[in-house]
Design brief:
heterodimer; A: 55 residues; mainly beta; Rubrerythrin, domain 2; 3 strands; 0% helix; B: mainly alpha; 16 helices; 2 strands
């Protein structure tokens, strides 16, 4: 599964782990995150700003 | 003893930097002495007038010191920032500040609860304690933006002192996302006085904080009334702390704590009021607002109040890099600049006609606005009046 990175602060969304604290269980694909998803750490980069870090 | 950071940059060669403010940051540990100083002087001179001195210091002496000591020329090079961010010395200072806030509130409450004081003295002490707990919100602001869970936990703990547990969630996920837009209850509008703003800011921030937390918990399949609710966790500490003070020192604590809490919140209101006054992000074709730019925040680069506030006044860099640590925040030329530090500007904001006189002109003269009221966040109730006064025939384009 892929990893996506916030280009602002470096937060990485790993599809394997999801982000349980944010309510995205392990295995949640990045594409399945809501369209208004913002970076959970800095909140100033949106879903479309995220970069593929590891396919 | 100085710590020098070096980096070998492929283009710029060797860059060296040592932080001249390194040891000044330790003053955050001594800041609690100021609210306590009034009490010490009361015993020394046996006069209740001494109790107002800490307030005089905050709202009169600090603005003068900012004026006299002036601007801070120290600016870490961007290449050094990662090393400076990693230096643990700085973060330990913010951690140690947390217990100070508990000690000061309990100390002042003890004094109020056990001494025979006039009502005016109790009022001055409640405001002094609230002003220092407002600094606690500033400490929480610094800690709550950081990635380590321990620092976010400390933010929740220190927010309990002024009972403002929803702040970090509302601020990080609400204010930073919506800053400098009409939708943001924590960004003030041109022509909006602080007394009008506070009625929009405090309830608006409260609602937004709860909405964001409720949404997160519902994604986890949990109710908002869950022990996993970060806001409730912080409120629970507030209940123990403030409830304990009422039990220990009696009913005088009820008005004392009410005024203390309100004044702490109002310090945050004051900061929010001056940080983005009138600034407006443009809407892009997609309907989304442009990304927050450096010119969407008012800055102050005065050395004294920046030391008091963990560099909060270097606000543009903070909005560009919200997770960046205070010691690494940078100042830039050509940013919207306040004519005094935050404390001086708070006092100015409390006198609305004077605030408008100083700030409206400054706002319209910003290079990216250049008199164009279409690029200003204006109070809708005063829009027509402001257009008439400053519009110079641009009314058509502005009637959006």
């Amino acid at each position: 599964m892929a990893k996506y990175r916030c280009p602002g602060c470096g937060y990485t969304y790993n599809e394997n782990d999801g982000d349980v604290r944010e309510g995205y269980p392990p295995g949640t694909p990045f594409a399945a995150l809501p369209e208004d998803f913002v970076c959970p750490d800095c909140a100033v980069r949106y879903k479309e700003d995220f970069e593929l870090a590891e396919a | 003893m100085t710590t020098t950071y070096t980096v070998d940059d492929p283009v710029k060669g060797r860059i060296e930097y040592s932080d001249r403010k390194r040891y000044l940051w330790m003053s955050s540990l001594f800041m609690p002495l100021f609210p306590m100083l009034g009490i010490a002087l009361y015993y020394l001179f046996d006069s209740q007038w001494m109790l107002v001195l800490p307030l005089v210091f905050s709202y009169c002496v600090i603005p003068v010191l900012d004026y006299v000591i002036g601007s801070d020329t120290d600016n870490p090079p961007e290449e050094i920032v990662p090393q400076l961010d990693e230096d643990r010395y700085y973060r330990i200072l913010t951690w140690l500040t947390v217990p100070m806030h508990f000690i000061v509130l309990i100390g002042i409450a003890w004094f109020v609860g056990t001494q025979d004081l006039t009502l005016w003295s109790v009022l001055a002490l409640a405001i002094t304690a609230g002003s220092y707990s407002g600094l606690g919100i500033n400490t929480a602001h610094e800690l709550g933006h950081k990635k380590p869970a321990f620092e976010r936990l400390l933010a929740k703990v220190v927010l309990a002192v002024p009972a403002y547990g929803h702040f970090c969630i509302e601020h990080n996920r609400g204010h930073h996302k919506d800053v400098a837009t009409p939708e943001d209850p924590a960004s003030s509008r041109m022509g909006e006085s602080i007394y009008k703003f506070v009625l929009r800011e405090i309830p608006g921030a409260f609602r937004r904080g709860w909405d964001v937390e409720k949404e997160r918990l519902s994604r986890q399949g949990r109710s908002v009334w869950s022990v996993h609710n970060d806001i409730l966790q912080s409120y629970a500490i507030s209940a123990v702390l403030q409830g304990g003070l009422i039990i220990a020192f009696g009913w005088i604590m009820v008005p004392f704590l009410a005024i203390h809490n309100f004044w702490a919140w109002y310090q945050l209101t004051s900061a929010n009021y001056i940080e983005h006054y009138g600034l407006l992000r443009a809407r892009e074709a997609s309907g989304r607002y442009e990304r927050c730019q450096p010119y969407h925040s008012w800055n102050a680069n005065y050395i004294f109040s920046n030391i008091v506030l963990f560099h909060l006044e270097r606000h543009s860099d903070h909005h560009a890099n919200p997770t960046r640590r205070y010691q690494s925040l940078r100042n830039f030329e050509g940013l919207p600049e306040l004519p005094n530090g935050y404390y001086g500007m708070y006092v100015l904001a409390y006198i609305p006609w004077l605030w408008y006189k100083v700030m409206d002109k400054r706002l319209l003269e910003l290079p990216h606005i250049n008199g164009d009221l279409g690029k200003v966040n204006i109070d809708p109730d005063r829009r027509e009046e402001i257009l008439r006064r400053y519009g110079k025939g641009q009314g058509e384009a502005l009637a959006v």
